[in-house]
Amino acid sequence: MSYQLQEINRRIDQDVKGFLEACDAQYANKVSQAADTILNNLSTSPIVLLSGPSGSGKTTTALKIEEELEKRGVLSHTISMDNYFKTLNPKTVPRTKDGSIDFESPLCMDMDLLNDHFAKLSRGETIIVPRFEFARQMRNDRLGEPLRLKKNEVAIFEGIHALNDECAGRNPDATCLYISARSNVVEGEDLRFKGTWMRLTRRAVRDYNFRGTGVAETLDMWANVRRGEKLYISPFKHRANYIFDSSLPYEVSVMKNYAMPLLEAVPQENVRRKELLELIDGFQGFHPIDPELVPPASLIREFIGGGIYDYS
C-alpha cells in the first residue's frame, strides 16, 4: 500500500483536523479487527503475541487493543517482553561479526521462562512477571509483579521476538499479531518517503526526546537494527493471524517539525551523511501539520509525547 503526496497535502489544506480524525479512525478500525481475532481464539488460548520491528508502535497498539477488549468485557494485561531479557554473561552473550554484543538476537531473551509463563497463565496459575533494569543491564526478579488470568482475561505479550520459533513456534494456540509501518508515500509513480524511513524517524525523535540519544547515534545503530529485523523478525511474520500497517498518512507532516532540526544539526562529517541527506530530502514537499493538532490518543504520541498512555 502507498499514499499519494498530492492527496496528503490536499487533505491538509482542505481540512487538517478532519484528515487527522479520518486517519486515526482507520487505525482504530484495525485495532477493532485485531480484537475480533483475539476474541475468536479466546476459547483456545488467552495468550496474545504481538511482534514488529523497532518504531512500529507496538506498545501503543497493545494498549489500544487492551482498551478495545475491555469495552467488550474482556480484561487484558499488556506485558513487555523486554522484561524477559537475560542478565547477560559476557562469556556466552551472542555477538555480531564485529564482536559487539548482538542485542537484537533472540538469544538475549529467557525463552524458557517465557514459555513456562505462557503455560502457567493458560492453566490459570499465578506467575511473577519479571522486571529488567536497563540502567543496570540486569533482571531484578524482586521487582516482579504477580499475574493470574481469570476467565475471559488475556495477556498481551509485546516484543520484537514474539513470533520467533522459540516463542510463537512453541505456542501454536496463541493469537499472533504483527505490526509495522509498511506504506510508502509516492508522488505519482516516484517514491517520496519510505515506510522504513517512517520507523527511523519515529525512533530518532523518540530517542532524542525521551532517551537522551542524539540522531547521529540513532543513525549509527539503525544499520544493526535493520540487520536484526531481517534475521530475527520479518522471517516470522507469516505466523500472524492479523497484520497491522501502523503508518499514518499524516505522520510525515507532523514529524517534519521534530525531525528536520535534528537531522540538519548532524555534523557534515558524519559517516552516514548520504543516508541523512536522503531522509532530509524526503521531507521536502510535505505540508507541515502543527503537532498541537495531533489527538492525545494518537499512535504518534508514543514518539512525540503529550499522549494519554503511560510508557514507563
SSE inventory with pairings:
Blueprint: E1 2-4, H1 5-41, E2 47-51, H2 58-71, E3 75-80, H3 111-122, E4 127-129, E5 132-133, E6 138-139, E7 145-147, E8 153-158, E9 175-180, E10 184-187, E11 190-193, H4 195-210, H5 215-233, E12 242-245, H6 251-264, H7 273-283, H8 301-304
Parallel strand pairs: 1-10, 2-8, 2-9, 3-8, 9-12
Antiparallel strand pairs: 4-7, 5-6, 10-11
Helix pairs in contact: 1-2, 4-5, 4-6, 6-7
Describe this structure as you would to a colleague.
- By secondary structure, the protein is an alpha/beta fold.
- It has eight helices and twelve strands.
- The chain has helices at residues 5-41, 58-71, 111-122, 195-210, 215-233, 251-264, 273-283, 301-304, and strands at 2-4, 47-51, 75-80, 127-129, 132-133, 138-139, 145-147, 153-158, 175-180, 184-187, 190-193, 242-245.
- The chain has a five-stranded parallel beta sheet with strand order 3-8-2-9-12. A three-stranded mixed beta sheet has the order 1-10-11.
- A hairpin with a 2-residue loop joins strand 10 (184-187) and strand 11 (190-193).
- Helix 1 (5-41) crosses helix 2, helix 4 (195-210) packs across helix 5 (215-233) and helix 4 (195-210) crosses helix 6 (251-264).
- The longest helix is centred in the N-terminal third of the chain and has 37 residues, at 5-41.
- The model has no long low-confidence stretch (mean pLDDT 92).
